[in-house]
Amino acid sequence: MLLNVNPLNNLLEKAYIPSSKPETQRAILAATLAQGKSVVRNDLRCLETTTMKEACRAIGAVITEQDGYLEIEGVGRNLRSNKRVIDALGSGLVFRVFSAITSFSNTPEIITGDKILRGRVMAPLFDALDQLGAKVSHIAEQGQAPVVNWGGGFEGGRCVIPGNVSSQFITAIMFAAPLAAKPTEIEIVGEILSISYIKQTIQALEIAGIQVECSDNFSVITVYPGEYQPAEYAISGDYTSSSYVIGAAALYPGKTILQNMSLVSLQGEKAILDVVEKLGIEISFDEQLQELTLINNQGTLSGEFEFDASDYPNIVPTLAAIGAYVEGTFRVIGGSITRLHKSPRIKAMVSELQKMGVDIQPLFKDGVYDGFEIHGKAQYEGGLELSSWGDHRIFMSLFIASLRCKTANQLEGYADVICSFPDFFTEFERLGAKFTETNGQGEVKKEA
Ligand SMILES: O=C(O)C1=C[C@@H](OP(=O)(O)O)[C@@H](O)[C@H](O)C1
Ligand SMILES: C=C(OP(=O)(O)O)C(=O)O
């Protein structure tokens, strides 16, 4: 089934932005590793936070979903494997963190994931775990999921991780390190990307009372042994999810209000605000109401722009969708890490937007996709079938890119919004978007 995304003439006023996925996943994990009861307020409920909850339940956490918050009875150091298999499905974070923390489980544990996850790069994490003395073996392909973690703990000490493959390797070691007997020193070598995610990990650990030291340039991080403390976590709105609504708001004159938004956040993707401000959109916050208001007085977007996405990888696909409508030059660099995400995201966006007739060219650094340059225009013909490459963020970005086409595009992969933004369609309906499910032969099944 495909989703027929009809052209939209103007955007209505309000949307509710879901809570942050990275913050929710980290809070669930830190609460699980604490002995006693923690509370996670305003948590995100979506497939990948459910995956995190199921993984935490598989080591003994008791997690209860209340109205607007989670209650978590954590396990402390007593990781009790009750399933022997942890399925991370498509979540890179769940797979990586559980590959590390199950070093401290009471029995060997298999950690696996779906087909896309099994193709993702994991070797630097396994190398680091090996350097720390953990016993992890691959089951199929070397350096990839699935693995067995044989348990037995690790001592701590020093490990080296490249900084430009995935920050989740660093996050994974940091979450496991407090359980070790000695301090764990992580040396991060080369260019360090996605630092905002390392900062979010430090924040979650510190809320749980874990001591972390970090050099100014993030090249050395030391995590001390300690007991995770039960705590209260308050989750803010997800800036990557907000980027689809903000992107749409940038394409239509008028006022848009986003609810569940706060400026007080370590999310690197907050940079979406800077991007649209540079495009001429006015922004204001009401922290009391947790509302972000955008005023767009522009008929068309134009100018010369360059953005370095090294610290905000997850909005790279959204930026391509917005850039398609910017007359002039719209360049994004620093996105190399996204080739290792759920799909090679720059390649995917370039390929799909080129099908749409967008003048977009990939930019390469050291032989890999690093960004793109777009010479956009105000409207495209549309009427095309576009692929999401099996990736929720590509789907949502192509949805935005389709809104200002003259005729409807048909998008594959819409079911994947459940990964991070389950109410995507409800919120875009509130914003006035019209879409229908179709079997690709023009037969409309039902209103989505
Ligand atoms: O730790 C996290 O929650 C994440 C870290 C980032 O991974 P990379 O460092 O691989 O970009 C980010 O892109 C991903 O969506 C979520
Ligand atoms: C890349 C993402 O998550 P992960 O790396 O945890 O699979 C994502 O949310 O798009």
Q: What name is given to the CATH topology of the largest domain?
A: UDP-n-acetylglucosamine1-carboxyvinyl-transferase, Chain
Percent helix among the residues?
Answer: 25-40%
- Unreliable spans are none
Number of helices: 13
Compute the CA-based radius of gyration. 22 Å
CATH H-level superfamily title of the largest domain: Enolpyruvate transferase domain
Mean of all residue-level pLDDT scores: 97
Strand order of the largest sheet: 23-25-1-26-27
Associated small molecules: shikimate-3-phosphate, phosphoenolpyruvate
Globally, the shape reads globular
> Describe the biggest sheet?
5 strands, mixed
Key words describing this protein structure:
single chain; 448 residues; alpha/beta; UDP-n-acetylglucosamine1-carboxyvinyl-transferase, Chain; four-stranded mixed β-sheet; binds shikimate-3-phosphate; binds phosphoenolpyruvate
